[in-house]
Amino acid sequence: MTADQLKAWREKHRLTQVQAADALGVALITIKNWEAGRNAVSGPAAYLCAVADKIGVPALGDITQGETA
């Protein structure tokens, strides 16, 4: 996932950088670095973005925060 793809994903779901960081279970600086292209979005975070597109961001937050239904 590229920096532009991450930003487009975040904007598609109407998330701030803080909200995206919370949903993905990463630090805010990580989101900022990804969107600036300083680090690549890969592995679990890229996978979680794809999952969020399928199940929705609120449900993703439940998963990354360890909550169960």
TrEMBL record:
SUPFAM superfamilies: lambda repressor-like DNA-binding domains. It comes from the Bacteria. One of its GO terms (molecular function) is DNA binding. The lineage of its organism: Bacteria, Pseudomonadati, Pseudomonadota, Betaproteobacteria, Burkholderiales. This is XRE family transcriptional regulator. It comes from Caballeronia zhejiangensis. InterPro entries: Cro/C1-type_HTH, Lambda_DNA-bd_dom_sf. PROSITE patterns: HTH_CROC1. Signal peptide: none annotated. Residues 6-63 form the HTH cro/C1-type domain.
